[in-house]
Structure formats: structure tokens, C-alpha cells
């Protein structure tokens, strides 16, 4: 660790030319009583993003520290694609703490870093901090959605058990642009990578689970950053999907995520088995929907996770799903006709 640098901001970038200036400006506007650095991993952008980063690097050489790839690393292998931060940014960290924000998101509070830094300095047993994040459209215009939803997470210090329970039970507890954690835990991730990091592409969830197992978690119910929302699909998307390759990719995703959750349960000595069990059932439910396997959708095993998926379904969709759970051959018939 470099004693002069107190916070390392880790930023993954790929073809973010329309957004990267806003992200970098939001880092540089931070008012702090300490030095920080910005570690950028530019994964061979082809849209002009690299030129913009070079411009900032030339202007702020003591702060902006980019890594430029001549080949796209994400596409080389599933493992490399999933572990971009672990492979390329975390090993370069010099700060006592790490903050994260991807190149298409941005911070909105000029005191964000100082606030989170002060919390960690005042609470040595706190391993991880996060805050409320406002969702925006692609233009950066604010939407009504926030992460987490109001009232879902209590403001203040959470025990590891409380944090892990929330991560496993809420749709999305904390968003990446709010992450702030101690760098002392990074060597284990980069040098002795725990098995559960090897499978899932849901790195944000795994980071939350990992750092929450290391100590208390502080949540500030203050909006200090923004997340650009991508479009999401409905519960019937798996049944109606025409893109077999995309569908298979999602099946692989949930299959691997289940491996990660089970490996994490072993890693933590099953201390959080009840919460991890819930997360496993939720992932299994995702997998059933993606595979078009509706036989057990309404079984007792999944009664606690089913409402997460079915609560927003129309009466017509629910009727369809109940029919498919009783008569699986109808699914094949629908796909054949579709």
C-alpha cells in the first residue's frame, strides 16, 4: 500500500465514449482530505473511449492510471470475462480502501469518498460500505427507481448476518457504484482466489457476499451515485425467447451461479446457511424458468421464493404457468408452434 494514496477507485471500461467523461469528472470532483487514484481497465474499446481516457491521463497523470488492452480480454474466456476487476484492477491498488464504479455509471455527491472514508476510519470492524443509488436512463436522466428500495435496508451499521441475509433475499441490495471496502482483503481474492469466485458472472453479488463476511457493513441511506438501467425482460421471456443462444447463456449463468453459492456456503463454514439456502432456491427458480421446466414452480420447496417472480405476473400469465406446471407437454407444444 502506498501511504500517500488512501483510496483506489476501480473502474471497468469498454466502449463507454458517451459516458466515460461523466464518470471521470464525477471522480475528479471529489472533495477529500486525502489522495486518491483512479484505476481504469479499458478492455480494448473501439469507439473512441480510449482517446478520452488518454486525454484525462495526460491532464491528471498523478490520479488517472489506466491499463489499455490491445486485445479484448472479456471475450477470451468465461473466467477472464467474469474476473476483470480481480485480474486487472485489484492487483494495482495502492490505497487503504477501494471504491468501485463502472465507466457508464457516475457519482453525484462530491463528498461521497470522504463520507465513506470517515465511516471506515471511525469503525475498524467495518469491512464494507454502500449507499443508495439512483437509477437513470441511458441519457443519465433520473428515474423513480433507487437501489435499494426505500425501507428495504436499515440505515447504519449491519452485522455480517444481517447484510448477507439482505444480499440473498433482496433482488439487488447494493449497486456497484456505491461499493467501498478495505484493500487488506484483496490479496486473498487475487492470490488465493476463493473457489466461489471461479464460477458465477454475478461478480457484484459475490463481492457483496465476500466483503460482508469479513466484518460489519455500513449502509448510508443517501443518494450519492447513479446507475444506468438496462432493459429487463418479463417472467415469460424464457418461454417466449426465440434466441436459443441467449437462452443457453442464461441457463449457463444460473447453473454457474448455483455453484458459486454452494461454494460460498462451504467457504463461510455454513454460518449463513439459511440465507444462502434462500439464494440457492431463487437461482434454481430462475433456472427452471429459463429451461422452461415448470413442473415444480408451485411446489412447497419454492413457496418462499415464488412470490419474487410471480407477484408482478398478470392473471393470464399465472394461469399459463399453472397449466404448464401440471401439463409440461404444453410448453413443448407452444415452443413448437412459436
What's the short version?
This protein is α/β, with parallel strands linked by helices and 338 residues long.
What radius of gyration results from the CA coordinates? 21 Å
* Tally of domains: 2
User: Residue share in helices?
Assistant: 40-55%
**Global geometry:** globular
> What do the pLDDT scores average to?
90
The helix-strand sequence is EHEHEHHEEHEEEHEHHEHHHHHH
Architecture (CATH level 2) name of the largest domain: Alpha-Beta Complex
What low-confidence regions span 5 or more consecutive residues with pLDDT below 50? 231-241
CATH class of the largest domain: Alpha Beta
Per DSSP E runs of 2 or more residues, the count of β-strands stands at 10
| Biggest sheet descriptor | 10 strands, mixed
Number of helices: 14
CA(first)-CA(last) distance: 58 Å
Class derived from helix and strand content: alpha/beta
Which fold name corresponds to the CATH topology of the largest domain?
A: Spore Coat Polysaccharide Biosynthesis Protein SpsA, Chain A
- CATH homologous superfamily title of the largest domain: Spore Coat Polysaccharide Biosynthesis Protein SpsA, Chain A
- What fraction strand? 15-25%
Structural summary, described in words:
The chain is of the alpha/beta class and 338 residues long. The chain has 2 domains: 5-228, Alpha-Beta Complex (Spore Coat Polysaccharide Biosynthesis Protein SpsA, Chain A), CATH 3.90.550.10; 237-337, no CATH class. Helices cover 42% and strands 19% of the residues. It is built from 14 helices and 10 strands. Strands 1, 2, 3, 4, 5, 6, 7, 8, 9 and 10 form a 10-stranded mixed beta sheet that branches. Strand 6 and strand 7 (142-147) form a beta hairpin. The protein is globular, with a radius of gyration of 21 Å.
Amino acid at each position: 500500500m502506498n501511504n500517500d494514496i488512501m483510496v483506489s477507485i476501480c473502474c471497468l471500461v469498454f466502449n463507454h465514449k458517451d459516458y466515460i467523461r461523466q464518470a471521470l469528472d464525477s471522480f475528479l470532483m471529489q472533495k477529500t482530505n486525502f489522495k486518491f487514484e483512479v484505476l481504469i481497465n479499458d478492455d480494448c474499446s473501439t469507439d473512441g473511449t480510449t482517446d478520452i481516457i488518454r486525454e484525462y491521463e495526460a491532464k491528471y497523470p498523478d490520479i488517472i492510471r489506466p491499463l489499455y488492452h490491445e486485445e479484448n480480454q472479456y471475450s477470451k474466456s468465461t473466467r477472464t470475462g467474469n474476473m476483470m476487476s480481480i485480474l486487472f484492477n485489484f492487483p494495482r491498488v495502492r490505497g487503504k480502501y477501494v471504491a468501485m464504479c463502472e465507466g457508464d455509471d457516475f457519482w453525484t455527491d462530491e463528498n461521497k469518498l470522504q463520507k465513506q472514508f470517515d465511516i471506515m476510519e471511525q469503525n475498524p470492524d467495518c469491512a464494507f460500505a454502500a449507499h443508495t443509488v439512483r437509477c437513470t436512463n441511458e441519457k443519465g436522466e433520473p428515474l423513480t427507481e433507487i437501489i435499494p428500495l426505500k425501507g428495504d435496508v436499515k440505515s447504519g451499521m449491519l452485522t455480517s448476518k444481517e447484510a448477507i441475509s439482505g444480499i440473498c433475499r433482496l433482488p439487488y441490495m447494493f449497486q456497484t457504484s456505491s461499493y467501498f471496502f478495505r484493500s487488506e482483503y484483496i490479496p486473498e481474492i487475487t492470490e488465493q482466489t476463493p473457489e466461489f469466485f471461479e464460477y458465477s458472472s454475478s461478480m457484484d453479488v459475490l463481492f457483496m457476499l465476500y466483503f460482508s463476511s469479513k466484518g460489519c457493513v455500513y449502509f448510508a441511506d443517501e443518494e450519492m451515485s447513479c446507475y444506468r438501467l438496462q432493459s429487463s425482460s418479463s417472467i415469460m421471456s424464457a418461454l417466449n425467447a426465440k434466441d436459443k443462444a441467449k437462452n443457453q447463456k442464461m441457463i449457463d449463468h444460473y447453473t454457474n451461479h448455483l455453484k458459486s453459492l454452494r461454494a460460498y456456503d462451504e467457504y463461510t463454514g455454513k454460518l449463513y446457511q439459511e440465507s444462502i439456502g434462500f439464494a440457492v432456491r431463487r437461482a434454481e427458480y430462475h433456472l427452471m424458468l429459463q429451461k422452461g421446466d415448470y413442473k415444480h414452480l408451485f411446489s412447497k420447496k419454492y413457496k418462499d421464493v415464488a412470490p419474487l417472480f410471480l407477484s408482478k405476473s398478470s392473471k393470464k400469465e399465472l394461469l399459463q404457468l399453472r397449466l404448464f406446471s401440471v401439463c409440461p407437454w404444453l410448453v413443448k407444444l407452444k415452443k413448437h408452434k412459436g
